[in-house]
Amino acid sequence: MRSAIPKYLDATGAVKAAPGFVHGISLAAGSGAAATVILDDSVAGSGTNKWKMAAVTAGGDSITFDPPIAFAVGIYATLGGAGATVSVAYE
Q1: Does pTM surpass 0.90?
Q2: Mean pLDDT in residue range 49-76
Q3: How far is CA 24 from CA 1, 9, 64, 68, 78, in A?
Q4: Which of 6, 26, 51, 82 could bridge across to 62 with cysteines, CB 3.0–4.6 Å?
Q5: pLDDT tens digits for 61-74?
Q6: Backbone angles phi, psi at 46, to 5 degrees
């Protein structure tokens, strides 16, 4: 059984700077803008897009991946929208 680690981000950044798996993601939009998050297979945001999610203003969304999504290089989250936050369950 795999054990996922939670990572909370309120800005664009690396989730993991090595290969890994994403088990789930939760995105929350700020009160003034819609939110987006893109997960790239990279350590600096320039790799292959593996997942994109959007949430409406003051809303949110979440998903669990079974099986988890594999990332060969690293896991990088590009977050858009004022006040947006994302939580990523990864290993």
Answers
A1: yes
A2: 94
A3: 15, 14, 4, 8, 16
A4: 26
A5: 999 999 999 999 99
A6: -115, 15
Determine the distance from the C-alpha atom of residue 58 to the mean position of all C-alpha atoms in its chain, rounded to a whole number. Answer: 18
Using CA atoms, how far residue 16 sits from 21, 39, 55, 58, 68, in Å, is: 9, 11, 23, 27, 15
* Amino acid code (one letter) for 6: P
What is the distance between the alpha carbons of residues 84 and 28, in angstroms, rounded to a whole number? 6
Give the end-to-end CA distance of the chain in Å, rounded to a whole number: 12
* Count of domains for the chain: 1
The conformation of residue 2, written as its DSSP 8-state character, comes to: -
- Domain CATH for 25: 2.60.120
